[in-house]
Design brief:
The protein is about 35% helix and about 15% strand. It is an alpha/beta fold. The strands form two sheets. It has a six-stranded parallel beta sheet, with helices on both faces. The chain has a five-stranded parallel beta sheet with strand order 2-1-3-4-5, covered by helices on one side.
Length: about 325
């Protein structure tokens, strides 16, 4: 029977599922670093991994490895090419945290528009008269561009429509397959969408260079808001700090960072018009339970020959 390496803290319901599986054994390393699980690689037939890297050198040490299951949907920290070379499938969870992430993005949009940090500081530290500057804004009637119109983007569109926002979306992946959104206008290109939007919310995976860099930020409307709950590096953090200083961007909500946790000298920490959260958008109690169960179930299904093909992200590259 398989021996599973759990790399990262797992909700007790996920561990309970493993405990109830006949003949399955496992090691559980809660620390989130690549170094922390090295001594367990040689005995692992499978891995369930959180956000820490899984690079080629680690994969090479795992001579028995047959399946890797991500505790989530992103996999930019995993060396997929190294898995492909070994014919090892990489799977993700299904639709378990999209509502949580969309809610978080909606919260950041509201917090930015209402200048929540400045408002809170005016009560705690003064001056109370800050309120008379009228820096808080409404989002009703404002234009929201959603970059990435998968499950999270569609949930966000539904929520934002309840606030009376005008919504458009752009998604390079879906645009080639036919636009699925009967409730939205046809997709715009990114440049046109950025120039049109009052608020931009990012929901695409990281793929090389930043999708939103200095040029893209400069093309946005003065006073725009940008929110990133996708992946660190999709929005260039240094360029965003420069845009905030210049007033091109009025506020930002950032849940993900190039390096996590960000250092005390991170360029966005000094702005009181920026809401920063610790990569927590998908980490509600409810979503954590669903992700743990789903990521473990994927491993059990694999060894039972029942893993759903649509959860394998590298199936087209396996021999």
């Amino acid at each position: 029977m398989p021996h599973i390496l759990i790399a990262g803290k797992l909700h007790p319901k996920g561990l309970a599922l493993l405990d109830s599986a006949p003949g399955v054994t496992y090691d559980h390393v809660e620390e989130i670093s690549e170094a922390s699980y090295q001594t367990h690689l040689a005995s692992a037939d499978a891995m369930v991994i959180r956000t820490q890297p899984l690079q080629a050198a680690s994969i090479a040490k795992a001579s028995r490895l047959k399946i890797v299951s991500r505790h989530g949907v992103g996999y930019d920290a995993v060396d997929v090419a190294a898995l492909n070379a070994r014919n090892i499938p990489l799977c993700i969870v299904g639709d378990v945290n999209s509502v949580s992430v969309a809610e978080h993005a909606m919260m950041l949009i509201l917090a930015c528009a209402k200048q929540l940090i400045r408002s809170d500081n005016s009560v705690r530290h003064g001056p109370w008269g800050w309120r008379n500057k009228l820096e808080a804004a409404e989002i009703s009637g404002k234009r929201l561009l959603i970059i990435g119109y998968g499950r999270i983007g569609r949930h966000l569109a539904r929520m934002a429509s309840g606030f009376g926002m005008e919504i458009r979306a752009v998604d390079p992946f879906l645009a080639t397959a036919g636009w699925p959104a009967a409730d939205l206008a046809s997709p715009t290109d990114l440049a046109a969408g950025l120039a049109w939007a009052d608020v931009v919310s990012v929901h695409v995976p990281k793929a090389g260079a930043a999708l939103i860099g200095a040029a893209e930020l400069a093309s946005m409307k003065p006073g725009a808001i940008i929110v990133n709950t996708a992946r660190g590096g999709v929005v260039d953090e240094l360029a965003l700090a420069a845009a905030l200083r210049a007033g091109t961007v009025a506020a930002a909500g950032i849940d993900v960072f190039d390096a996590e946790p960000p250092g005390a000298d991170h360029p966005l920490i000094g702005f009181d018009e920026v809401i920063l959260t610790p990569h927590i958008a998908g980490l509600t109690q409810q979503a954590a339970e669903r992700m743990a169960i789903s990521s473990v179930q994927n491993v059990l299904d694999f060894f039972a020959g029942q893993l759903a093909a649509d959860l394998i992200v590298n199936k087209d590259n396996l021999k």
